[in-house]
Amino acid sequence: MWIAVVFSLYQIATAAHLVSLPSQIVRAFHVGFLMLLVFPLIASSRDAGRLVKAGAWALALAGVAVAVYQFVEYRPLLLRAGDPLPLDIFFGIVALFTVFAAAYVLMGPALPIISGVFLAYCLFGEYLPAPLNHRGYDFSQVIDHMAYGTEGIYGIPVYVSATYIFLFILFGSFLERAGMIKLFTDVSLGLVGHARGGPAKVSVISSGLMGTISGSGVANVVTTGQFTIPLMKRFGYRAAFAGGVESTASMGGQLMPPVMGAVAFIMAETLGIEYYEVVKAAIIPALLYFGSAFWMVHLEAGKFGLHGLPKAELPSAARALRERWYLMLPLAVLVYLLFTGYTPLFAGTIGLSLTVLLILGGTAALGLPSQVLRVIFWIGLGLVAASFFRYGINAILIAALVLIAANIFVEGGRKTLDVCRASLAEGAKTALPVGIACAVVGIIIGTMTLTGAANTFGQFIVAVGETSLFLSLVLTMITCIILGMGIPTIPNYIITSSIAGPALLALGVPLLVSHMFVFYFGILADLTPPVALACFAAGPIARESGLKISMEAIKIAAAGFVIPFMAVYTPALMLQDGGPLAESVGYAPAVAYIVIKTSLAIALWGAAVIGYLRRPLAMWERLLATVAAFTLIAALPITDEIGFALCALFFGINFFLKRPAPVEPARRKAGDAAE
Questions:
Q1: What does the pLDDT read at residue 673?
Q2: Any bridge partners for residue 612, and if so which?
Q3: Cis (ω within 30 of 0) for the bond into 258?
Q4: pLDDT tier, 219 (very low <50, low <70, confident <90, very high otherwise)
Q5: How far apart are the C-alpha atoms of 210 and 35, rounded to whole Å?
Q6: Each residue's pLDDT tens digit, 39-60
Q7: What integer pLDDT is reported at residue 660 of this predicted model?
Q8: What is the C-alpha to C-alpha distance for residues 357 and 383, in angstroms, rounded to an integer?
Q9: Among 86, 157, 341, 507, which residue carries the largest CB count within 10 Å?
Q10: Cα–Cα dist 311/309, whole Å
Q11: By CB neighbour count within 10 A (0-12 exposed, 13-18 middle, 19+ buried), where does 457 fall?
Q12: Pick from 501-510, 574-583, 618-627, 663-672: least confident
């Protein structure tokens, strides 16, 4: 725990420039801390024997030794770049071995195997037949490229992990400990808990709200899912469907601004654009994604006659906001800073600082004898927080130290300090899979920059796209989903965007849209079997097989598959310029038109998948809805006109045909037991 706490404090110190180190050293220390934490933590959590624990500490210290070596030899390494000494090669091998071992023990064999294949390609690719071969590289050159500099392990992904990502993970960790989960849950329950299928709608909304502060899908599952999945089962939803709803909604947290998943920060850094540009491109697709999940659970509830909770048992959304509105202040400030041009690092530092001051100040204020003094205290603390913009981090740091000292003597203060310590430790623990994935995937990027391996696959996509852009998109989608079956979203995005991004750009797809296309299917890949991480995380909570939950999640997310395709053909869906529609009717009308068209396509997909719209649908009606949705997506000559006509026909038939009573829900024994 204390290693994790020190790790988090180090990250805060470097982000706030309390400690100024060269970028290469910041990255090396970040990876060193990851190695120091992951091996003993995994060995301890698996209750390993003494010998295994000793081996874990040996690997941890080896990872630290690499970081210390880079710190001590920083200038000499720069001067002899490209001409490494034998000792450099030795530590480079140790760096590669520990990173591979960390990825294996934390995430399983898939990602290390894929990265290992790329590393082997660097060493032996010259012996492959054309066009797969390369000119050949010496062993020392490969190790130097991968283990030093900013092209391999310590590339852009690790830089982003060591700066933006870790800070935002800490921000979310502190907000969760401060009570943000309860606020989001109470607001969701108050808004939709009483509606048809209310428990599942609560899951969608609370997961969407959680996504604004946490970019981790699996973390969202295990936080909000602890409450929403048993609630859904209690009110008649099948266990697999309940787990699928929570998994689908939680994975969407990576798409939901302002604090999107780690991929969004890597995307901004890779493309050299402001983070708010990524947020702007993501906001409409994110709302449509959650809207589609909301629609699916609404239809499922209608099909089986699932009702909401009694209003008398529900909390008041207004009251929840009245009592805990102050928790929204750091998030509001964060959004303001991101959208007014400040860097994510600056905005994240401010957001985290405000959250810490709120938590510490809350307990300190309770120790004051009168309401007047509490008001004066909060006004003063607000002025101190605002002084950041003029005097920098020192004012915040002094205020935090004073509040820490005050909490030692105030009633309940020590408990608050324990909460802060737990938030620091939990933040570091949550950052482990992200940071290690960024380090090991750097080997793949290093292979591409060294050998130019991305060109071969990219040329194939371009060749396919000359005959059909749609086939190129399908090929890219399949690549994302296949990769996503074994590796997390971050390496999935980095690998596929490195290969397909330039190829889709060559076919006329805007660069940001092509990267968002890959990002979107990287997220959906985490819902696809056989390795659907979010679904398997939901399994123990739902008491159902992760595989069954994954099959339901694919159905619930089915409508979401249409969004990235429609954005490629009409970039206005991501608030981007370009595309024939925007050129012919103008930018604003194009945005309105594509949002309406996408919403209709989502509505049709949902009805086709669930088989219900006001009444159970016959197979021919579901087929009609599928064809109508597909024609709205296709973006070929007159397909929109055909799609709107089929859409009107479908809704007309559904409206005029008789509406029978809904199917009576079959409660599962597990649901009855939970009730």
A1: 42
A2: 616
A3: yes
A4: low
A5: 29
A6: 999 988 887 788 988 999 999 9
A7: 54
A8: 12
A9: 157
A10: 6
A11: middle
A12: 663-672
**CA distances from residue 582 to 116, 566, 590, 634 in whole angstroms, order as listed:** 45, 14, 5, 17
Amino acid letter, residue 154: Y
Residue 352, both tokens: 């985290």
> Which segment of 2-11, 150-159, 252-261 scores lowest on mean pLDDT?
252-261
In 251-289, which positions are buried (b, 16+ CB within 10 angstroms) versus exposed (e)?
bbbbbbbbbbbbbbbbbbbbeeebbbebbbbbbbbbbbb
Q: How far is CA 591 from CA 149, 198, 561, 579, in A?
A: 43, 31, 19, 11
* Phi, psi dihedral angles at 485 (to 5 degrees): -70, -20
**Residue that the structure tokens 């290390």 belong to:** 112
- CB proximity list for 281: less than 8 A, separation 6 or greater: 512, 513, 516, 574, 575, 576
Contact 157, 265 (CB under 8 A): no
Point out which residues pair with 616 in neighbouring strands: 612
Whole-number Å distance between alpha carbons of 49 and 146: 33
What letter represents residue 443's amino acid? I
CA-only gyration radius of the chain, Å: 26
**CA pair distance 445, 498, nearest whole angstrom:** 8
CA 498 and chain centroid, separation? 19
- In the chain, the largest separation of any two C-alpha atoms, in whole Å, equals 81
Q: Which two tokens stand for residue 293?
A: 């999940």
The span from the CA of 428 to the CA of 224, in Å, is: 20
CA-wise closest residue to 288 among 611, 595, 634: 595
Query: How far is the C-alpha of 551 from the C-alpha of 418, rounded, in Å?
Result: 41
- Per residue in 453-488, pLDDT tens? 666 666 666 677 667 778 888 888 887 777 766 566
Predicted confidence at residue 33, as pLDDT, reads 94
Q: Which amino acid is at 190?
A: G
**Is residue 659 scored above 50 in pLDDT?**
yes
| 434: amino acid identity, one letter | V
Instruction: Please give the model's pTM, rounded to 2 decimal places.
Output: 0.75
CB 416 within 8 A of CB 362: yes
Residue type, 293: A
Return the exposure string of 340-358: e unless at least 16 CB atoms fall within 10 Å of the residue's CB, then b. eebebbbbbbbbbbbbbbb
The label of the residue with tokens 């597909």 reads 630
Q: Where are the alpha helices (DSSP H) in 108-165?
A: 110-124, 139-147, 156-160
